[in-house]
Amino acid sequence: MRHGKYRFLIGALAPPLLLYGVFVVSPYAQAFSLALTDWDGLSAEAGFVGLSNFADLWGDKLFLAALRNNGFMILVVPTATIALALFFSACLTLGGGTRRRGVRGSGLYRIVYFFPQLLSVAILGVLFQFVYTPGNGLLNGLLGAVGLGGLERAWLADPASALPAVTAVMIWSAVGFYVVLFTAAMESVPVDVVEAAVLDGAGRFTVFRRITLPLVWDSVQVAYVYLGILALDGFALVQIMTVGPGGPDNATEVIGLTLYRSAFTYGEFGYASAMGVTLFFITLTLTALALRATKRERVELA
Amino acid sequence: MAGAAAVLSGCVTAGGDDPAEQATGAVTEDNPLGVPEGADLEVVMFDGGYGQEYTQHAVTLYEERHPDATVTHEGLQKVGEVLQPRFVSGEPPDVVDNTGAGRLDIAALAEAGQLTDLAELLDAPSLDDPAVKVRDLLLPGVVADGTLDGTPYFLNYSYVAWGIWYSRSLFESKGWTVPETWDDMLALCGEIKDAGIAPWTWQGKFPEYMMDPLQSLAAKAGGLDLVYAVDNLEADAWRQDGMLAAADAIHRLVTGGHILEGSEGLSHTEAQNAWCNGEAAFLPCGSWIEGEQQGVTPEGFDMAMAAVPALSGADALPYGAVQGSSSESFLVPAQAANPRGGLEYLRCLFSGEVARGFAESAKAMPVVKGATEGLELSSGLASVAAALEAAGDGVFGYKYRTWYPELAVEVDTATGELLAGRTDPEQWSDRIQAAADAVAADDSVAKYER
C-alpha cells in the first residue's frame, strides 16, 4: 500500500502546484528578469540593462512621491483600522456589561459593519467621489449643516486633504471585515476566564486589556500584515477618485499608479517591472518586521 | 553575467519570428493594392463614442469588392490589453483602430517595426474617383499627424478642434457677445459674474482640458515657432514670452475669481453637466463634447464652439486660428497575415461614402474633404465646421503630448496647480521647463523633430 499512498499524495499535490507554478511563480520570475531589461512591451526582443532601472528609481520624482504617500498610508491605515475594529468588536462582545454580552442590537451591527466589504473598490471610489464633491458634496453639505461651514473645501483637489481623504475611504472599507474577524476571536475567549476576572473586580476596560486583547493577539498580528499590504496598494481608489489621477501635485501618487503609468502609458515595461520588484521586497521586509515587532508569548489555553 | 545577458536579450516570449512572406495578388485597375484573391481579413476596432457603424460600413464596401473574402470585424474597448500579446507573438490582426484610454503606444509600435508603411495606400487611387489619390482626399495635416520620422504609419479618422464652448441661447438672452481678445474676455467675465453666473468652469480632475486654451493662446501669440520650440524640447521653450503671457492670461481667470468654485475638484462629467445646467458660461473642450453631452443638454441650449480669443493685438496667428488634430488612429500591423487587405480596407474606410455616414452617425467631423457638405449639421458640429472653415490654414497642434507622455503628465500637474491658484505663471513655466529639460537629457526616451 505504500506505493499507493505516494501516488495519491503526488496526484493530489501536482495540480495545485502546477497551477501555482504557472500562474504565480512564473510571472514573478518573469518580472524579475524583465526588471533587468529595457523591454518596451511590444517588441519580441528586450535589451539587457543590468541594474540601471533600479538606479533610476531613486531619481524618479514620481516614484519618490509614491513611496512617501504609501509610507503615510502604511503608518495610518493598519493602526487606525485595527484600533477601530477592536473598539467596535469589543462593544459587540463586551459592551453590554462585564459578562459576555454586546451592546443592544449587536447582531444587527455585525451585519451592518460588514456591508462595505461587499462593495467593489470601483464602486467605493465612485461613491466617495460624490461624498467629496466640492461645493454641494455630501461631506461639505454635512459640515455646513452642523455649522462647520468654515471647514468646507474641495477635498480631493487640495494637496493637504487629498491623501487623508483617500486614506479615510480605505480605512472605512476595511474596518468591517476586521470587526467580524476580531468578534469571532473574542467570542472564542473562554467564559470562565472572563468571569474569574470579573469576580476579582476587573472592570470592562481591564478585562479587555488584560484578558481579551492578549487572547486575540494572533488575529491582530495577521490583520496588521494584511492591512500593511493593503496600504502598499491603493491603486484602484487613487485611479478612480483623485485629480490627475495621482494629484493634486502628486499628493496621492502611489507605487501601483507610477508602475501602471510607466508600463501602459510610457511603454517602459522593464522599468515598471523594476518598480514591481522593489515593491515586492518592500512588502516582504515590512511583513517580516511587523511579525517580529508584534511577536508576543503565546497564551496556551488548555 | 554574460550568459544571463544573452538569455535576457533574447525573446521575451515565444514567437516573434520574422514577418511572414507577404501574400500579394495581381495588381489591376479594380485591385490597385494587389489584394490576394480569397484572403481573409481580420479587423479589430475600438468601440468608443463614435460607435461602430462607420467601420462596419467599410466592411460592407470591402466585401462588395472582394466577395470571396471572409471579413471578421471585432469591436473592443481596451484595444491594448487584447492586442499587446498578439503583437508580441507576431500574430496581429490585419487592421487596427488603435484608440481609447487603453490604446497601444504608436511611437513604440513604430520603433519596434510593428507597423506597415502606408505610403502605398496614400498614393493609390481613391474609391470615389480613380483620378484622385487617397492622399488628396484628406484634410490638411492628417498625413502629417500620422507620420513618424518621415514615414506615414497611421491615419486618423476623426477631426477634432478645440475651443471655448458656450450656449448660444444663453448668450443671446443676456446680450453677450463672444469676445475676440483676452481683454474683452476678462471684461465680459466681470459682466457675467454680475449676472450671477460663474464665467468659467473646467474639468479640474483632468488639467489637460485647461491646457488646451492656454497653449492655444500661446500658439496665437508666438506662432508656429513657439509650438515647434515646445515640441522639439528646445531650451527655455516654456519660458518664451508668448507662453508666459498665455499662462498669465489664464491665471487672471483664477485671480479674478472668474472660475466656478471647486472646479479644480470636478470630473469632466461634473463640470460639463454644471455648464449644461447654466451654472457657468464658458467651458474649454474639444469638439466631441456635443456627442458626449447628448443625453444631458437641455432643449434649446444650442451649444457652440468659439475660437480661443487673441492674446494681444500683436499675435503671430490670426484670431480665427484653432487648435485641431485628428484622432481615431487606424494602422496596419507589419506582421499581419493579409496586410494588402488591410490597406484595401483603409481605402474603403477613407472614402466619401463612409465619411458621410460617419458625420451623420457619430456627429463628428471626418478627415475626408467635403464629407459634411450638404448635410444638415447639429448646432455644435456646425459651429466646429464653421470654425475650421474660418481658420483655413490657421490650424495648429502640439505634438509633445503624444511624443513625450512623461512631459505631458508634469504639464498637467503644473497646470492643475496654476488653476488652483497655488502657483504663479513663473513657477508654472519653471516647473515644466525642468521636466522638459529632463526628458531632453534622457537617452532612453526616443526623440522626434518637426
Automatic annotation (TrEMBL), chain A:
It is a multi-pass membrane protein. Keywords: Cell membrane, Membrane, Transmembrane, Transmembrane helix, Transport. GO terms for cellular component: plasma membrane. It is found in: Cell membrane. GO terms for biological process: transmembrane transport. It holds the Pfam family BPD_transp_1. The chain crosses the membrane at residues 72-95, 107-132, 163-185, 269-291. Residues 67-290 form the ABC transmembrane type-1 domain. Belongs to the binding-protein-dependent transport system permease family. This is Sugar ABC transporter permease. It comes from Glycomyces paridis.
